[in-house]
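TICKET #2291
ISSUE: user wants both folds in one file
ATTACHMENT 1:
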Amino acid sequence: MGLTKSEIFTDAQNEIATLAKAFAHPARVAILHHLFKTNSCICGDLVDEIGLAQATISQHLKELKTLGLIKGNIEGTSVCYCIDQEKWSEMKYLLTAFFDQDIKPDNCC
């Protein structure tokens, strides 16, 4: 059996690509902004804040949770979400190292 395409790339390259999905939709960026702005767990006020349907918000929350950037706790009949600080720090470190690369002017075509 052959290699999958992700296997030809480094772990860091795969991780950067995976984490970049968090920023691939403005709704997910807005959700992350709101979580940072409130600086606490949120339990369902995103529909009014973001302006999208609950089902759409839920899909984006699921994607962010799958990526590990947020975590959720069940409280009664709702799920409360907050930033996963450890994963966020890991992502910042990885992306900062990636974005801090510079091109030497001599090597440009």
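ATTACHMENT 2:
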Amino acid sequence: MLSKTTYNIKAKISLLPTELGGRKNPVSTGYRPSLAFNSIQHFSGEIELLDQQQIKPGQSGTVLIKLIPAKHIRKNLKSNDAFTLNEGNKAVGSGIIITAEKIGTDT
């Protein structure tokens, strides 16, 4: 059973440069990495870029992230929490939450 709790997150993300193991291509709205919030569990999210058309490896930008409902999801995400952007088992960037709006609640 999926959790009824999810989040809309505004965050600042930074992509690792390609030469340090990051992506080879830029990301744009619709990018769906997995996110790890200081845990071994990864959560899927869809990214919408706010102030630019794309973010290239080695660059940063402000984004909205819609976490996709999962079986288990943290219930206490908040401003200034850090996270890692992953593609499979490979870290491709990091981020800091600016705001986290909880959507729905589990009973």
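RESOLUTION: both attachments delivered.
EXTRA DETAIL ON ATTACHMENT 2: The chain has no helices and six strands.
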